[in-house]
Structure formats: C-alpha cells, structure tokens
C-alpha cells in the first residue's frame, strides 16, 4: 500500500473531523443520552434483582439459623449492592456532558474568532474609504459609489425579483443589505429611521430585524443576529441614491455603518 496515499487520507479525515467537530460531538452526545437512558433502565432492573436476591438470602439464612426475621436493608446496604450496576451509566453520562461542553467551547472560540475578523475587516474598510476620499476627493468617491449602486441594480434587476408591497408608499426602493425591492417613499423611510433610532437609544441596541420591521419588510435568516448599538456603532444613518432598475427609477438605501453581530454590541 502506498504510504503517501495513507497519509493523505489520514490528513483528510483529520481535517474533516476538525471542521465538523461541533456536529460530531453533538451527535455523540445525542447517542450518549439515549445510551444512558437504556443503561439506567437495564441497571435498575439488575439492581432490583440483586436486592431481591440479597433479601431472599438473608431470610433463608435466618430460617436456617432459627433466628428472628431480618429487618429491611439499610440505605448503605442497598448502595453496596447496586452501585456497580450504575457505573456504565455514570461513565456514559460524564462522557455525554464532556461532549456537550466541548461542542459549546468550540462554538464559542469560533464565534470569537469570527467576531475578531469581522472587526478587523470593518476597521480596514473604514480606513480604506477614508483614504480614498482623502486622495481622490469626496466628489469622485461619491461618483464611484453611485456607479457601484448602478452595477448592483444591473446585476439584480427588478424584473427578476419580487417587489414587496409594504403599504408605505408607491416608489420603488432597494434595500442594499438583503437585496430586496419594495414599495415605499423617502419620507416614510426617514420616519422609520427616526422611530428606529428612538428605540435604539432607549434599549441601547436594536437588531436588523427591528429595522426591517420598521420598513415593513420580513426578517431574514440572519437579521436577528445583527444590528446596531449605541456603544459600538452609534445611531442608524442611511443614505439615498436614485438609479434606474430595468428602466424604472429606484431609490437605493445604503448605510454609513453596516450592522454588526449583536454578540459584539
């Protein structure tokens, strides 16, 4: 057998286990819970049989010795009889707890690493944007941003997307984070921003889902976990740009500061 192939296979297996260790530990923990229940039931049955056998032996010995009938077994006597039947259950239970703690620990470390990378990327992007404005001027930077907005609409034209009717206006709008089209108008959006910031100041933080709700949009799969906080991001500041989406005027909603994971807020 080729040793190189074996080593490569071992590395692939190791990499797979490292990447999927939380899921593997969770699966093992789930199996451990089921196994613990089965072992506990089996152990209890064996323990009850052992107690009955011990009581029968004591009665038989008493009859042979012609002494008084023995009293019930004490708790210590019962413990000495049954402890060995629960050793497997205890060991499996401890292993299950270890798997749960291990999976949670890995998740915490990974989330901390992602939060650190996110913060670094955000800082780098902000410094880059500031330097671009300093070098080419705010006017040219704004022109570049507008061209990027137009490219975004061209990649996701309104005729290929669902337009959400919010009942808050009749102008076509585009929300740049979720990439959704909806009907509203600038005044209603500004009012939604003011209401959102009022809630943000009162509660110290608010989620992206709260902002979507203010706009009349449904939350997304990740919007509950992102948002703004007074301490980390300050209040919500949005920008407006108007471009054409498949020939139809469209208001693009941008953000001076994007939402951050709420674990950092």
Work out the count of structural domains: 2
Structural class: alpha/beta
Largest sheet, in brief, is: 5 strands, mixed
Strand order of the largest sheet: 1-3-2-7-6
| Helix content range | 55-70%
Q: What is the tally of helical segments?
A: 7
Strand content: 5-15%
Q: From N to C, what is the helix and strand string?
A: HHHHHEEEHEHEEEE
What's the rounded overall pLDDT mean? Answer: 85
Total strand count, please? 8
Give the terminus-to-terminus CA distance. Answer: 55 Å
Overall shape: it is: elongated
What gyration radius follows from the Cα positions, in whole Å? Answer: 33 Å
Return residue spans where pLDDT drops below 50 for at least 5 consecutive residues. none
Please characterize this protein's 3D structure:
The chain contains 7 helices and 8 strands; from the N terminus they run αααααβββαβαββββ. Helix 4 (87-136) packs across helix 5 (138-155) and helix 6 (186-203) packs antiparallel against helix 7. A hairpin with a 2-residue loop joins strand 6 and strand 7 (248-255). Helices cover 62% and strands 14% of the residues. The model has no long low-confidence stretch (mean pLDDT 85). The longest helix has 50 residues, at 87-136. With 265 residues, it is α/β, with parallel strands linked by helices. The protein folds into 2 domains: 3-113; 137-264, no CATH class.
């Amino acid at each position: 057998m080729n040793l190189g192939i074996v080593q490569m296979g071992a590395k692939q297996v190791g990499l797979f286990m490292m990447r999927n260790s939380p899921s593997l530990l969770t699966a093992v923990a789930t199996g451990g819970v089921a196994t613990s229940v089965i072992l506990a039931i089996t152990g209890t049955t064996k323990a009850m049989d052992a107690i009955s056998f011990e009581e029968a032996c004591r009665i038989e010995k008493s009859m042979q010795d012609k002494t008084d009938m023995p009293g019930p077994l004490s708790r210590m006597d019962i413990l000495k009889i049954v402890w060995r039947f629960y050793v497997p259950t205890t060991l499996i239970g401890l292993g299950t707890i270890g798997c749960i703690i291990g999976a949670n620990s890995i998740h915490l470390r990974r989330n901390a690493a992602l939060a650190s990378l996110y913060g670094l990327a955000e800082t780098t992007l902000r410094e880059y944007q500031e330097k671009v404005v300093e070098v080419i001027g705010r006017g040219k930077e704004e022109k570049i941003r507008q061209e990027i907005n137009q490219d975004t609409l061209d990649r996701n034209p309104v005729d290929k997307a669902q337009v959400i009717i919010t009942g808050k206006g009749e102008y076509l709008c585009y929300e740049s984070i979720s990439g959704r089209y909806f009907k509203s108008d600038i005044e209603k959006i500004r009012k939604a921003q003011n209401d959102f910031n009022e809630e943000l100041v009162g509660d110290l933080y608010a989620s992206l889902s709260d902002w979507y709700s203010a706009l009349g949009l449904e939350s997304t799969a990740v919007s509950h976990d992102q948002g703004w906080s007074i301490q980390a991001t300050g209040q919500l500041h949005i920008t407006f740009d108007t471009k054409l989406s498949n020939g139809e005027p469209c208001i693009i909603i941008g953000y001076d500061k994007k939402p951050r994971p709420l674990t950092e807020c």
